């Protein structure tokens, strides 16, 4: 039955000259100014879309009709219409946008402006800048809790998480973590936040109610010098079983038990693994590998790398459209 | 949300806001003393070194520290003196010590630094952001002096590692006449032994003609030899070295202080977030960041990172933390940096650059070390007589 379905989608994909029907992954290629579109059924690149300069952070609108792209060197956020694969609009983003996060209200976009030490909040419908919030040096990671209460920004050189109240747009608390915090990921119930520290080599687990650190995870990979183990992207399975942590130039992804915080395994992927995303069934995990310019596909059940897919130069972000 | 909920949350927030302020508000003043002796006239004066190299890096370090400090009620200030002679530099130190400044960044020659270290003994911690002399790291260490500028040995080890990796092992060395040139060349000779290079010709630069006119005539003859893989130039102040590339007897690359060579920092470094540091610096100074700027910046960020970590100032507290396992400096070189406990040198990767591009960033893969790959660059613990801790 499943095979029959596959054939149908394939046939549909071949029959249509426009976008295919299979589940699609979008990858931003930082040094090619393009997005690669990967068909996750065949794990092949089916399209390459020209976008603005130095695309890094990418995310999907809550209704999965648009893709927002941080075009860092164009100082703008571009809006890509997924049906036509055309850039239809740009948003005022402040300078050098790198990462961003969309509030569950599907309107408030929180953008980290790396060169300006601010977080800009934009209403994506009206394009109004709702707030600019002073944060530490080199704001980088951005996350909004699924319940919409918190926006968390990481400032790399200040080594802090800034906890922003999404009602007042004010910082309520600053927590110091390891050097060069990169990325924050909330659990689905908004109770726990995971934050990676690239140079510190650590992941910090926060209890969101108290905003206190409850656990620090360290990583050790046999045969890899400790200072090459640099956590960046984090992805959590929605069943609460696993966390996957991209470990940068160690070229490994750590598999962490999301309940006990114990590191279960290290999977060898491409060079300088950066960000990662799960497909719609959470059966496969896709990682961007900047230096080897490819995407690794990990089988989540087997915890094995099954394929690498050549994309553009310096792939940075990856998101998978669960509805496609 | 109902009113009760709001009030509850408001009171919790107040608790958070009070926490950092009820801890101690800290004011940290850092001194910066700059004295660079006149380098004398040089043949190649196309791109003179900026006179404020070092100072502007220190200023950026203070700005970065304050951007972090404002969330923790920690304020940083810089007191800088650009001295015109050694007496002026030493007098500036006396004044700063008198005013209670106990953290200083210096961009002064090795002799001046020795005198300063003596004066500041027990009173202040100095960060050397100017003198690369190896003696300061192997025999004349001081417990109160740390080094953020790489030593000549670190620079030349990085270059030799790369030459060895490329298997360009036979080199022609040209050394200029200044003490610095000789120190750089001595370091390179040591590096060539460590990494299995063969110096097939080792010639001092003795010409005093104006090479802008005659480089193409003089240099081919000067670099005649049976064969070599590369020419290595030791010309620290940039006198004749710029004229060596493309004028060698054999068609070979030129490396060292000119051509392609090791630097603590250079505008072509952009990976690991360095592009952001370069942008911030350019905005502040209106020019590109160089090695001296980077060394001063790294010193002040070391202090800032420490104060963030321990919420205290004071040179002895800071020194203790700097040498502890907790200290790690994120400094845009792709790894955490820390200080060698035996001689106070900041461990760091060394970019190998040519004017418009990055070639490699030693330590290179395959050069192993039992503790830290970074210790394949410069004098390792067993090679140094220093034990400052």
UniProtKB/TrEMBL annotation, chain A:
Q: Which UniProt keywords apply?
A: Signal
Q: What is this protein called?
A: YVTN family beta-propeller repeat protein
Ranges for domain YNCE-like beta-propeller: 67-257
Organism encoding this protein? Marinobacter azerbaijanicus
A Pfam family of the record is YNCE
Q: Which SUPFAM superfamilies match?
A: Nitrous oxide reductase, N-terminal domain (SSF50974)
- Tell me the leader sequence span: 1-22
Is Signal a UniProt keyword of this protein?
yes
**Does the record bear Transmembrane in its keywords?**
no
User: InterPro entries, from UniProt?
Assistant: Host-pathogen_enzymatic-act, N2O_reductase_N, PQQ_b_propeller, WD40/YVTN_repeat-like_dom_sf, YNCE-like_beta-prop, YVTN_b-propeller_repeat
Database matches in PANTHER family:
DIHYDRO-HEME D1 DEHYDROGENASE, PROTEIN NIRF
Q: Where are the transmembrane segments?
A: none
Automatic annotation (TrEMBL), chain B:
Q: Span of the secretion signal?
A: 1-25
Q: Which UniProt keywords apply?
A: Signal
Can you give the residue ranges of the Leucine-binding protein domain? 52-207
The family line of this record is:
Belongs to the leucine-binding protein family.
Name the species this protein comes from. Answer: Marinobacter azerbaijanicus
Q: Which domain of life is it from?
A: Bacteria
The protein here is known as ABC transporter substrate-binding protein
Which InterPro entries would you find in this protein's record? ABC_transptr_sub-bd_PQQ, BCAA_transport, Leu-bd, Peripla_BP_I
The record, for Pfam families, names: Peripla_BP_6 (PF13458)
- Classification via CDD domains: PBP1_ABC_transporter_LIVBP-like
Q: Could you read off the lineage of the organism from its UniProt record?
A: Bacteria, Pseudomonadati, Pseudomonadota, Gammaproteobacteria, Pseudomonadales
| Gene3D superfamilies per record | 3.40.50.2300
């Amino acid at each position: 039955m499943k095979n029959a379905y596959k054939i149908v989608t394939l046939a549909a994909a071949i029959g249509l000259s426009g976008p295919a029907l299979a589940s699609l992954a979008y990858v931003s290629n930082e040094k090619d100014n393009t997005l690669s579109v990967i068909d996750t059924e065949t794990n092949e690149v089916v399209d390459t879309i020209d976008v603005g300069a130095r695309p890094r952070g990418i995310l999907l609108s809550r209704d999965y009709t648009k893709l927002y792209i941080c075009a860092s060197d164009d100082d703008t956020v571009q809006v890509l219409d997924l049906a036509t694969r055309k850039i239809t609009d740009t948003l005022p983003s402040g300078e050098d946008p790198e990462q961003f996060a969309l509030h569950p209200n599907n309107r408030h976009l929180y953008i980290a402006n790396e060169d300006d030490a601010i977080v800009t909040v934009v209403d994506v419908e009206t394009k109004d800048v709702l707030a600019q919030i002073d944060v530490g040096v080199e704001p980088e990671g951005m996350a909004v809790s699924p319940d919409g209460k918190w926006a968390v920004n990481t400032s790399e050189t200040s080594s802090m998480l800034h906890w922003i109240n999404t009602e007042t747009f004010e910082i309520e608390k600053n927590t110091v973590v390891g050097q060069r915090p990169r990325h924050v990921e909330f659990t689905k119930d908004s109770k726990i936040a995971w934050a990676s520290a690239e140079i510190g080599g650590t992941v910090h687990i926060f209890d969101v109610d108290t905003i206190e650190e409850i656990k620090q995870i360290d990583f050790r990979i046999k045969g890899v010098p400790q200072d090459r183990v640099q956590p960046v992207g984090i992805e959590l399975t929605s069943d609460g079983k696993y966390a996957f942590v991209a470990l940068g130039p160690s070229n490994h992804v750590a598999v962490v038990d999301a309940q006990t915080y114990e590191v279960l395994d290290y999977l060898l992927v491409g060079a300088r693994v950066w960000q990662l995303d799960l497909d719609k069934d959470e059966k496969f995990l896709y990682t961007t590998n900047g230096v080897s310019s490819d995407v690794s596909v990990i089988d989540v059940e087997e915890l094995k790398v099954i394929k690498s897919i050549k994309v553009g130069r310096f792939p940075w972000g990856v998101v998978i459209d669960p509805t496609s | 949300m109902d009113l009760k909920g709001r009030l509850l949350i408001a009171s919790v927030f107040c608790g958070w806001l009070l926490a950092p302020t009820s801890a101690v508000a800290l004011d940290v003043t850092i001194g910066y003393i700059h004295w660079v002796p006149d380098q004398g006239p040089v043949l190649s004066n196309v791109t003179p070194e900026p006179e404020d190299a070092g100072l502007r890096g220190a200023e950026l370090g203070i700005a970065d520290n304050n951007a972090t400090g404002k969330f923790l009620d920690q304020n940083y200030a810089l007191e800088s003196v650009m001295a015109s002679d050694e007496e002026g530099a030493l007098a500036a130190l006396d004044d700063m010590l008198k005013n209670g400044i106990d953290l200083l960044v210096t961009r002064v020659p090795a002799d001046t630094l020795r005198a300063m270290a003596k004066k500041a003994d027990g009173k202040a911690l100095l960060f050397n952001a100017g003198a690369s002399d190896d003696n300061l790291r192997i025999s004349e260490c001081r417990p109160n002096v740390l080094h953020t500028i790489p030593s000549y040995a670190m620079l030349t080890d990085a270059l030799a590692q790369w030459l060895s990796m490329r298997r360009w092992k036979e080199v022609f060395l040209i050394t200029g006449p200044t003490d610095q040139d000789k120190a750089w060349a001595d370091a390179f000779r040591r590096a060539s032994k460590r990494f299995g290079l063969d110096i097939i010709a080792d010639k001092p630069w003795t010409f005093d003609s104006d090479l802008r006119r005659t480089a193409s005539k003089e240099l081919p003859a000067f670099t005649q030899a049976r064969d070599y893989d590369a020419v290595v130039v030791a010309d620290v102040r940039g006198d004749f070295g710029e004229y060596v590339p493309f004028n060698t007897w054999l068609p070979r690359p030129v490396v060292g202080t000119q051509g392609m060579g090791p630097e603590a920092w250079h505008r072509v470094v952009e990976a690991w977030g360095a592009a952001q540091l370069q942008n911030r610096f350019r905005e502040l100074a209106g020019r590109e960041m160089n090695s001296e700027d980077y060394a001063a910046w790294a010193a002040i960020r070391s202090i800032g990172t420490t104060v963030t970590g321990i919420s205290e100032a004071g040179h002895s507290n800071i020194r203790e933390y700097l040498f502890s396992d907790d200290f790690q400096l994120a400094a845009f070189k792709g790894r955490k940096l820390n200080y060698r406990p035996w001689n106070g040198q900041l461990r760091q990767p060394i970019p190998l650059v040519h004017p418009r591009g990055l070639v490699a960033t030693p330590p290179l893969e395959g050069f192993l070390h039992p503790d830290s790959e970074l210790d394949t660059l410069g004098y390792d613990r067993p090679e140094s007589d220093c034990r400052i801790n």
